[in-house]
Design brief:
About 35% of the residues lie in helices and about 25% in strands. The protein is α/β, with parallel strands linked by helices and about 400 residues long. It has two domains: about 170 residues, Rossmann fold (3-Layer(aba) Sandwich), CATH 3.40.50; about 210 residues, CoaB-like (Rossmann fold, 3-Layer(aba) Sandwich), CATH 3.40.50.10300. Strands 13-12-9-14-17-18-20-21 form an eight-stranded mixed sheet, sandwiched between helices. The protein has a six-stranded parallel sheet with strand order 3-2-1-4-5-6, with helices on both faces. α1 packs across α9, α4 crosses α6 and α5 packs across α8. The radius of gyration is 23 Å and the shape is globular. About 45% of the residues are buried.
Length: about 400
């Protein structure tokens, strides 16, 4: 049964270049058997046409607060409430400001002020605009009122600059919508914990020990579990990734901080330890920057970091399913099998990270799932695809 079948989604399309992504979002929502109505701002019509939006949604497109015909047929108040969810995409800096201040000087802002339904915003703007204190204050005010956000993401922007400001892709928006509306989600009522990214172990206030993990696989898994309805906590080391939609994100730097955050997220039904945790840390981090003064390089005494996967697998509040990752450069399956037994986890997801594999930092992966029944090898695919497939396997296991 489709999660969104029969659901009514109202999309408020803002005036930004990312408005073109809404056409794909409308198509995907219609494929999921959701009913879609759209409101266009005046600026949005500079990027997408009412004809294209109406053709894809198969509904009338609304754009004028003082349209007598529209007011007679449905009215802006009914339009604001005759839906299950309002999606604002792209949520421009101007639209976010209007929402935060409660302005209502056009149809879009009036609908947003008049609705009593949940609102999901997908911010999109120049990275400097996103980082401006005014915009951050507005998004914080909206979050405090229960308005959820998806993105923005880092990457190349329309102006040719690079930074955080890209609107999330239609797939991510659809996942967030499904999370908000999908009463038939297979993981509804379940709690999931995911660790992701590297850890930074300080040598002194400037230098640290780390690894090449980008966090892409762990973040994708968190998003996929949330899309299936799980109440998901993502504990993330330092990355350049946007927060996955529908997740509570706890940011840490060190392995000790990651363990503390993971334990604080218990009890949970599912734990997926996808982070590349540093095995060792400097036994004592210096409080001042080490100087190169012509003497011999300082010896670095290391201490072993806590084993987060083993700790969760043996905890008194052990999650029902504990999944670990094994990143290996040789004897992949043998090392992964031994790791599963040694750590006490239920599954190990093994991947080859040797030179040339392009797994660390790349967008694709090849994994093998090892459990008590044996080994299941998957073909090469995008990390988002692996995440979706793994989340489905998890849902089947804990159902």
């Amino acid at each position: 049964m489709d999660m969104l079948a029969g659901k009514r989604v109202l999309i408020v399309i803002g005036g930004g270049i990312a408005a073109y992504k809404c056409l794909e979002l409308i198509r995907r929502l219609r494929e999921a058997k959701a009913a879609v109505r759209c409101v266009l701002t005046a600026a949005a019509k500079q990027f997408v046409t009412p004809l294209s939006v109406g053709t894809l949604s198969r509904e009338r497109v609304y754009d004028d607060l003082f349209d007598l015909t529209a007011e007679h047929e449905i009215g802006h108040i009914r339009l604001a409430r005759d839906c299950d969810l309002v999606v604002v995409a792209p949520a421009t800096a101007d639209l976010l400001a209007k929402m935060a201040l409660g302005l209502a000087n056009d149809l879009a802002s009036t609908v947003l002020l008049a609705t009593d339904k949940p609102i999901l915003v997908a911010p999109a703007m120049n990275h400097v605009m996103w980082g401006n204190a005014a915009t951050q204050a507005n998004i914080a005010a909206l979050a405090a009122r229960g308005i959820s956000a998806v993105g923005p993401e880092a990457g190349e922007l329309a102006e040719g600059e690079i930074g955080i400001g890209r609107m999330s892709e239609p797939a991510a928006l659809l996942a967030a919508i499904e999370k908000r509306l999908g009463s038939d989600a297979p993981l509804a009522g379940k709690r999931a914990l995911v660790t992701s990214g590297p850890t930074f172990e300080p040598i002194d206030p400037v230098r640290y020990i780390a690894n090449r993990s980008s966090g892409k696989q762990g973040h994708a898994i968190a998003a996929a579990l949330a899309a299936l309805g799980a109440e998901t906590t993502l504990v993330s080391g330092p990355t350049r990734l946007a927060d996955p939609p529908g997740c509570r994100v706890v940011r840490i730097e060190t392995a000790q901080q990651m363990l503390a955050a993971a334990l604080a997220a218990l009890p949970a039904d599912i734990a997926v330890c996808a982070a590349a945790v540093a095995d060792w840390r400097p036994a004592q981090a210096g409080t001042e920057k080490l100087k190169k003064d012509g003497a011999a390089p300082p010896a670095l005494l290391l201490a072993e970091n806590p084993d987060i996967l083993a700790t969760l697998a043996r905890h008194q509040n052990r999650p029902r399913l504990v999944v670990g990752f094994a990143a290996e450069t040789e004897n992949l399956l043998a090392h992964a099998h031994a790791k599963r037994l040694r750590k006490g986890c239920d599954w190990i997801v093994a991947n080859d990270v040797s030179v040339g594999s392009d797994v660390f930092g790349g967008d694709s992966n090849i994994v093998h799932i090892l459990d008590a029944a044996g080994t299941e090898s998957w073909p090469a695919m995008a990390k988002t695809g692996i995440a979706a497939r793994l989340a489905k396997r998890i849902a089947e296991s804990v159902a």
